[in-house]
Design a protein that fits this description.
- The longest helix is centred in the middle third of the chain and has 14 residues.
- It contains 12 helices and 15 strands.
- A hairpin with a 4-residue loop joins β10 and β11.
- It has 365 residues and is of the alpha/beta class.
- A 7-stranded parallel beta sheet has the order 5-4-3-6-7-8-13, with helices on both faces. A 3-stranded mixed beta sheet has the order 9-12-14.
- It starts with 12 loop residues before the first strand and ends in a 6-residue tail after the last helix.
- Pfam families: NmrA.
Length: 365
């Protein structure tokens, strides 16, 4: 099973569609010119980065990771009435989502836009940002991805979030001014383990766990810090190769593609073993139940339709644990961890964080 993925180095080319700028061209016809290479060191890196949701849970981690590189000027895009606390060292620009001009002005001059928003955010909000980024000629957009494998269309449709994410990617490509990179990180481990029974099935207060099927289906899962570091490392890559002989990783190699990252490949039984080590308990101390994936998924759908948001979480998580391997993108695509220089993490360290979050009832839905 692959532990990393190799990116074939394909040198980007430029097409000319204006005959006045092309002595041998024909008006409105496309011509291949010399490969695009870096014209200067300064122009070959992402410097100015705008981030939506900089004060949110994932956004805070990403902002701090980018600040630590010392390579970027960060701008937080926030609503005028936002009370989110923005980390020091970040410029703040207030916007009105009902006024496209304010969004365009806030994004003008940016090299990249990072969108981090809740799945419960108002519909159409990300599209407004993408359209503004195109109007402001922002070359790179990291859309509100942060999920599973975008090539698993059926899983995305069943989980209700796939079509919206696909629409964002399609819009970026249709507008033609920006390129996207999707961060495929699956569920955030320390949140999901400690969030409640609807997620990874653990109820720490009552010391019980519900295994989906037999609890042995493995999925990829990533910590907040690893996801944030992946974003920072990605945006710290050179945009283009220095010359034709440069085979180092570049941002352009991820153009309109997912970046697959992961902290751990785990089953629910693997998680329980870590929980037992961290809590000093035995398996006999826990109540272990089993639920068929189809039954649990259907229950989540019914619960959500009945107005209980936990039902959405239940159906979302359950769908990733289907035995078809849809939640294990590492097996299909490998990972970009090595290319981005991501560290190996200690599972029990982050299990301990999850246990603590559960004890303090942090973000339990």
């Amino acid at each position: 099973m692959p532990s990393r993925v190799s990116i074939e180095h394909k040198t980007p080319f430029i097409r000319c569609v204006n005959y006045k700028a092309c002595s041998s061209g024909v008006e409105l016809s496309a011509h291949i010119h010399q490969p695009i290479m870096a014209t200067s060191t300064r122009q070959n890196y992402i410097e100015k980065v705008a981030i939506v949701g900089a004060g949110g849970q994932m956004g805070t981690f990403i902002t701090e990771a980018l600040l630590k590189t010392g390579k970027h000027h960060l701008t937080a895009i926030t609503r005028a009435d936002s009370t989110s606390k923005i980390p020091a060292g970040v410029e703040v620009k207030k916007v009105d989502y009902e006024d496209p001009a304010s969004l365009i002005e806030a994004l003008r001059g940016q090299d990249a836009l990072i969108i981090t928003m809740s799945v419960m955010s108002p519909p159409g909000q990300s599209a407004k940002l993408i359209e503004a980024a195109a109007a402001a000629n922002v070359p790179w957009v990291l859309p509100n991805e942060y999920g599973g494998d975008p090539t698993e269309k059926k899983m995305g449709e069943d989980a209700m979030i796939g079509p919206g994410k696909q629409a964002d990617r399609d819009l970026i490509e249709k507008l033609g001014k920006s390129s996207w990179v999707g961060i495929s990180c699956s569920f955030w481990y320390e949140y999901s383990l400690g969030a409640g029974p609807f997620a990874y099935g653990f109820d720490f207060e009552n010391r019980s766990v519900t295994f989906i099927d037999d609890g042995t289906t493995k999925i990829n899962t990533t910590t907040w810090s690893q996801t944030a570091l992946a974003v920072a490392r990605l945006l710290s890559l050179k945009v283009l190769p220095d010359d034709a002989s440069d085979k180092s990783a570049t941002l352009s190699q991820f153009r309109n593609k997912p970046a697959y990252v992961s902290s751990f490949l785990l089953s629910q039984k693997d998680m329980l073993e870590s929980v037992l080590r961290v809590t000093g308990t035995k398996e006999s101390d826990w109540k272990i139940e089993h639920e068929a994936h189809e039954v649990r998924f259907a229950a989540g759908v019914a619960q959500f339709k009945g107005g209980d948001r936990r039902g959405f979480g239940k159906l979302l998580y359950t769908r990733a644990f289907y035995p078809d391997g849809c939640g294990n993108y590492e097996a299909r695509h490998g990972l970009h961890n090595d290319i981005l220089g991501l560290p190996k993490e200690d599972l029990d360290e982050f299990t301990r964080i999850a246990v603590d979050r559960a004890a303090r009832k942090v973000l339990v839905l």
